[in-house]
Amino acid sequence: MGKKLVTAQKRGETRALCLGVAMVLCAAIAYYILGTTVLPLYQKSVWTQESMCQLIETNIRDQEELEGKKVAQYPCLWVNVSAVGRWAVLYHTEDTWDQNQQCSYIPGSLDNYQMARADVEKVRDKFHEHQVFYCFSATRENETRVLYRRLYGPQTLLFSLFWPTFLLTGGLLIIAMVRINQSLSILAAQK
Asked: Which residue(s) pair with 95 in the sheet?
């Protein structure tokens, strides 16, 4: 009976070690992917200065109001604010400016014009309710853009690193427990 117990333990230990090593390898792959995608975006982000923005003007722009310019045919919101002692245009995130420089906020669903218009009006009303709010500005002097929300901020980086760290810690704990179990069984067999 003693021999069967040792064989079963070894089989279980091998499976546990494989699980621990697989978890550590998955964590390493996840760290590599995050290091090549999210980390450079976080490091390149110039929107690090948090400041207070005062609403100056909001304007809903439709395609008719933007004649002569190549913009998508959907309603969008244009927001002017006063930030860090100067006039600036507020953009929702870093990607909003890349999508359309004429829009501060682009609605999420562009399939239905009426729903998109209602979404833009709801956001405009929120700005009119809270005319002073936090925003992010660049440290450059001549920058005339500010952000309402950073896509690549410290919270995003920490949230992205949580699961790989959890996998790495769990895998290392499994490996350590198997090694401790092996040493204790060797000590018990020697007595």
From this structure: none
Query: CB neighbours of 3 closer than 8 A, spacing ≥ 6?
Result: none
* CB 57 within 8 Å of CB 30: no
Which amino acid does the sequence have at 71?
V
Please state, in angstroms and rounded to a whole number, the distance separating the CA atoms of residues 34 and 160. 7
Beta bridge partners of 167: none
Decide if 89 contacts 135 (C-beta within 8 A): no
Residue from 167, 178, 174 nearest 23 by CA:
167
Q: How confident is the model over 83-96, as pLDDT tens digits?
A: 777 888 888 888 88
pLDDT in tens, 22-38: 999 999 999 999 999 88
Provide, for the chain, the percentages of residues in helix, strand and coil under a 3-state DSSP scheme, each rounded to the nearest 5.
55, 20, 25
The answer to whether 95 touches 148, Cβ cutoff 8 Å, is no
Contact 127, 55 (CB under 8 A): yes
Determine the Cα–Cα distance for residues 117 and 33; give it in Å rounded to an integer.
38
User: pTM here?
Assistant: 0.68
Coil/strand/helix, residue 51: strand
